[in-house]
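INFO  loader      accepted 1 record
INFO  loader      residues=292
INFO  predictor   begin
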Amino acid sequence: MKRQAFVVMAHNRWEMLFRLLERLDDSRFDVYLHIDADSMVPDGVMQRLESGFSNLTLLQRRTLFWGDVSIVDAEICCFAQVLASGREYSHIHLLSGQDLPIKSNSQIMEFFNAHDGQEFLEMVDDLTIAHVRCVNIFTRDFGYKPGRSHVMYRIRKSVNKLLHALEKMILMHKWYRRRIDFRKGSQWVSVTPRLAGYIVGRREEIVRFYRRSFAPDEFFVQTTAWNSEFKDYICDKKTRYIVWERKHTPHPRTFTVDDFDSLTASEACFARKFDSDADSAVIDMIYDYTEE
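INFO  predictor   done
INFO  writer      dumping tokens
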């Protein structure tokens, strides 16, 4: 069977991150960890990351801004570093630091090797084309970061909203974006090395195309695949179990012990999100359930 590669994107919740990394510490898996360059990582955490896991590679850290193309560029660079390893994988899985597998490692291996060559990209129907087609002058001000001017953040966000309204009013969407068949879905995907390589080879083009878009990390993989030969290999099986309690909310439900039955009933391989500070018991229960 081919190995599995996991790219984990993290920026805080270190104990939760350790629970995930412990769960993925398997000789059949390789884990590549990216930590936001703006995150303050305690010395003890870094020491444990550097010496505590046999299959972990720490990736070059980049500064990320929520809703910004910096996330797209970081993900593509992570894919590039996985491919540069020269190892053969059936899939590269993008996970957050608050995800957990909800199937055993053997079940994950069997599932993805049985679907070798298929792309697992969640597609959703509520596509907001304005997010992609409208120009955002201040793309890095959607997600406020501590230490930045809160007043300027509000002003720039208001300017973006005003520009969006004017642009839609006079139908000045960028002409070269009108003919693209956009697709939207979850940022958290499982792709083959072939698709990852296709995306890496178009890094400059993709980053330039989405540099003024809002939340392009939810568009670029799906849209790239849909408008290429990989369209025929997109699988409709859901590999992530995520619960959105309110439509258009930016954060999914944090699972608790009350969700255990629905988690174990899901056919998905991974679930998000968990928080060991909020409810560590459900994490222990998932560990026991997936133990081999």
